[in-house]
Design goal:
The protein is mainly beta. The chain folds into 2 domains: 8-12 and 321-382, Immunoglobulin-like (Sandwich), CATH 2.60.40; 26-317, 7 Propeller (Methylamine Dehydrogenase, Chain H). It has strands at 8-10, 13-15, 26-31, 42-43, 49-54, 57-62, 68-73, 80-83, 89-93, 99-103, 108-113, 121-123, 129-134, 137-142, 148-153, 161-166, 172-177, 185-190, 196-201, 210-213, 219-223, 231-236, 242-255, 261-266, 268-273, 279-284, 292-296, 302-307, 311-316, 320-327, 330-336, 342-347, 356-357, 366-370, 377-382. A hairpin with a 3-residue loop joins strand 28 and strand 29 (311-316).
Length: 385
Amino acid sequence: MKTKVVLLLLHVCVTLGARAGNMPDILWADSAAYGYVATGVAVSPDGQYAACPGSNGVQIKRVSDGSNITSLTYGAAIANLAFSRDGAYLLAAGGSPAVSVWRVSNWASAYSLSNVLPGPAAFSPDSALLAVASNSVIQLRSATDGAMITSWNSPVSLGAINTLAFSPDRARLASGAGIRGSDLNLKIWSVPSGTLLLNIPTAQTYSVGFATFSPDGRLVATAGGEYPYGPAQLWRVADGALMRTFPQGAFSVAFSPDSAMAIVAGTNLSIYGVATGALLSRYADAGSYYQRAVATTPDGRAFLRTAFPGQIFAARLPLWLNSFTYAGPNGLLSWSGGDGHYQLQQRTSLTDGAWQNVGGVLTNRMAEVPLQNPNSFYRVISLPN
């Protein structure tokens, strides 16, 4: 049985070691002969469906096993894919028509926008708004029918807006733009007024091609998007302060649902602890030089990675300790990742004897560790489904 060690507790002293390997713990993989440079992968809010570039445009897969559900016709390059938070709609943006929206209930077309230039789009967290970029103009539209609500201009000297992302509270919208170094700033706007709140210089050298907020709304991540010409960085939303710069060029970033881990897709797949910046796992990711996108499942068990020309895989998100605190006579552990079913184990020697289960199966990524025996070691393992 495969297990993953989260914690080793010795005399109430927590010791951790980064996991490393040549490949992540892949659940399933597939490929499609997608004919255009493309980025984007999206997971439905209920965790059932994954949308990714496919042979006909957009391929819908079952997250649990990678089986094909349906194909949605969409021409030209895909800038991004996104499900609305209420699970009712899926969008594809960047091609022709510039934005296509489908109803998830039957995968039928809901509407499309052909009167805007190709660019990114994003649903607001309350599923009411659709933000669309048309060259240097940001439009806010109705998510249900695409009707225009308001718009504002984001001056770009060269190129166009490459990425849009709403904050979890819908109060802010992040955008990135530029080409060949013409605009290397992350911009954060007030919604719906379009007032520019922050204009943050990044370490990108080609353009700010990717941005996403952490689920807790405290941070926004930036990366290169189409090209990994600059590192992934984490910025504090409140004031734009730089919190982390991760080494190596990066295409995109995904946060774990609890905001504790950041998955950075570059030449390698690297997983970092957000609070400390510690490298938790790094995997070689050979393949196309073009875009790679990542997304996590809502239950925090797995992540998905796509790459041109239509490669996709799902892999387990590794376990990692978030915190250790005292709770009366016991210690309280919390962690991220894994398969959703866990077991706390104990032993008194790392060289003799076997690990013994402490208590029953856990499902909430939290456990109390009895500390009465100062000579005990403890670990948490992820159980197979």
